[in-house]
Amino acid sequence: MREIGMSIPELFRCPISLEMFSDPVTLSTGQTYDRPCIQKWLGAGNLTCPVTMQKLQDSSMVPNHTLKHLIDQWVFKGNLHYHQLNHDFSKVGSSKNVSFSSLKDTLQSKGSSLEQRLQVLEQVRLFSEDLPRKNEGLIQMGFFSLMLGMIFGAKITQELMNLVEKSLICALKLMPFSNLGDLNMLMEEESKFENFKVLLQQGSCMVKIALCSIIEKVFLQQSLAIIKELATKIGNDSKILKGMVVYIDDHQHNPDLAEAGIKAILTLSSSQEPAYRENLVKEGVVHSLVTYILEVEDKELAPKATKALELVLVLESGKEAFLVNEVLNCGVKALIKMVFRVSGDDQGSESAVNCLMILCCESMEVRDKSISGGVLTQLLFLLQSQCCVRAKNRARMLLKLLRSMCAKDPIHV
């Protein structure tokens, strides 16, 4: 331990990876390993302890809380130093003997200049490239919460926008390994939630994309009790939802922002809470998705947009929004286009067929426009393709529905 501050103590290193423990567990032989490493060892079919080579009669693992506590104390004292890492920080003018605690102090100090904070954020960004196996001190010392506080805690000014951008970059890198409950600071102080909305409306393109990523993460994990309330607040906020819809509308000038908006809207629409989808419909999402699908030839995003459209068309309000004259013609063309595309994927085709099924059961006009628009040919092509069985079954059902219409009304033949 005399080498604390100079290198990671051997006691804190996993004998398999030689990296600092993230989740130390002890086997029946008394040897301690990092949980991911020993799980990989045992998962490969090994029945022995890697260090002692004793046969394991019992493969159970007991968390080593004492060792974990010692490591946490060591990290919190700021003993994890830059020179342990294989980064060259000369470009940002850092000292190789600066600890995580001193970084945190600089960011939190009211006496630190904007330039000093920006330099530290660049260093934090470089460190976060080595998560989760290295530099987990960033997580243990609460840098994720600190980044969120810097993003949403201060009054938004143009001068601070660069600081917000860099903080968001760091927060996104830390988020997969951090406690999402930290996001609840947006619930605890209304001013922070208001800043969140201001940034969604007035922030730079990079800021808006990053915030969409946070929204996407919240709704992907909304089953967690710690962020369920936040998901509810976002899903019922008209300004936030309208902002994401507008991002899609701007797809010709800013495709990256439109992509972020579509992904966030898709995760939100996938929620089991129909009120969120109802709110999106009120903000014009049906028209925006239809226009995007019709105008954009993106093999990845067009299917996602079509899936989001399918999810809102389940609602009566969604169908009504589609059947409005200014949407109807473009909407049918967009869906027919998506039914079968060379080099397309199953998701887009299946969602397009599902949308047409929903609409054709509802509207004779949609059936008429679909047939005259060539959907029968597209469906036949789809059936001859290598798409999934589920998509083909839905295509057969739609063909049967449309053919029955043709039999009753020969004018459509």
UniProtKB/TrEMBL annotation:
One of its GO terms (biological process) is protein ubiquitination. Its EC number is 2.3.2.27. It catalyses: S-ubiquitinyl-[E2 ubiquitin-conjugating enzyme]-L-cysteine + [acceptor protein]-L-lysine = [E2 ubiquitin-conjugating enzyme]-L-cysteine + N(6)-ubiquitinyl-[acceptor protein]-L-lysine. It holds the Pfam family ARM_PUB. Keywords: Transferase, Ubl conjugation pathway. The keyword Transferase applies. InterPro entries: ARM-like, ARM-type_fold, ARM_PUB, PUB22/23/24-like, RING-Ubox_PUB, Ubox_domain, Znf_RING/FYVE/PHD. GO terms for molecular function: ubiquitin protein ligase activity. Residues 7-81 form the U-box domain. Signal peptide: none annotated. Pathway: Protein modification; protein ubiquitination. Functions as an E3 ubiquitin ligase. This is U-box domain-containing protein. It comes from Spinacia oleracea (Spinach). The lineage of its organism: Eukaryota, Viridiplantae, Streptophyta, Embryophyta, Tracheophyta. The gene is LOC110790296.
